[in-house]
Automatic annotation (TrEMBL):
Family that this chain belongs to: Belongs to the short-chain dehydrogenases/reductases (SDR) family.
Statement: the UniProt record of this protein carries the keyword Oxidoreductase: yes
Family matches, as InterPro entries: KR_dom, NAD(P)-bd_dom_sf, Sc_DH/Rdtase_CS, SDR_fam
Organism superkingdom: Bacteria
Keywords of this entry: Oxidoreductase
EC nos: 1.1.1.100
Region listing for Disordered, in residue ranges: 180-200
The protein's name: 3-oxoacyl-ACP reductase
EC main group: oxidoreductase
Amino acid sequence: MADRYLRFTGTAPGRFLTRRLGLPQPAPLRRWSAGHPALDGPLLHLTAGASALDLAPVLARTGLPLGDRDPAAVVLDATGVRDVDGLGVVHAALHPVVRALAASGRVVVLGAPLDPDDHHQAAAQQALEGFTRSLGKEIGRGRTVNLVRLTDAGAAGTTLDFLLSPRSAYVSGQVVHVAGPDTGGPRDERTAGEPGQPLAGRTALVTGGARGIGAAVAETLARDGAEVVVLDVPAAEADARAVAGRLGGTALALDITAADAGERIAAALPDGLDILIHNAGITRDRRLVNMSAERWGQVLDVNLASVLRTTDALLAAGTLRPGGRIVATASIAGLAGNAGQTNYGASKAGVAGLVRALAPHARERHGVTVNAVAPGFIETKMTAAVPLFIREAGRRMNSLAQGGLPVDVAETTAWLAHPGSGAVNGQVVRVCGQSLLGA
């Protein structure tokens, strides 16, 4: 459904009226397109405190020229900030340039892990989280602010590529931890020399891929070179086949809640799997006092139990190859809660718990990373059916003052599925325009 308010605020009368009434003034977001893949303008590199990072080769790969006039992006290296005085340097570095940052621009602050043996450093580095999230809520004009914690600049290459590009249009106020080698396992040679198709030679399975966010994820992974298997329930087989046919992939009609779903997927993919996207999900909303056990059980089975069973089965069978990626779909409803969705919120919080607990073991034992995306208000047929005033509140209650698109979730998923994202593990990344509610 078209966001008429967003269009209205782009007109001269709309800007005047909303400004006079103090109403939200969303800016159209720059998203990726084949003809316009990069931000418009230079990259400004700043440093607060002493830094041991060699960022030059990492920033060069973004394709943005370095410059200090009207920047499209700002990277502030604050890994050397160790005390309150260092936070003053952060202010001094960004204060003069924020106003000049282009519309739909990017601010990425680089921080260090908290030092458990130095409470001054830990306090100063933790302060960067409050700083970046607060700046993200005030910066406006479709601009985003994120924090990346790292110790090795090279390991953050793919993450910075994403956050400094139009692909991250609806990701703001996030803290991404980059730790460990940034490798894709022994299969990396398949993508050498193919920067436009980083997933070439890889097979991706997308559950719930016949429509909505799942279809957008399948399309984006295929764009990046993956051979996509679109899985959905038998009732949606025609839609799944249509999506798969359009992408040169295959369709798999299967009830993901079946006890043997994992074994059947493994049998359908005898050559193995590189990317597993857990997107299938349902809602059965009621307040708890009116919610039947059946409604509760249906949501928990589809959204959480099937994810656990299928993941366990595919890891045990060795279907997921070394260098593989698992990306599950959580929700801000699971992080912040939502009235009438105790079942849905429980299931999506459970996905976050699964990711954080499984990630270190999956990487150590199988060479596979495990992460999640947590969408906020995304413009889909489901949200289009929400009553008008609730729908408008959902759209505006974030720092970008608008709903996201399925492609925003898909782009974030593709970043986590990238062979160069091996240093990102156990993360739950919100795709919510920095929701004003919740963590």
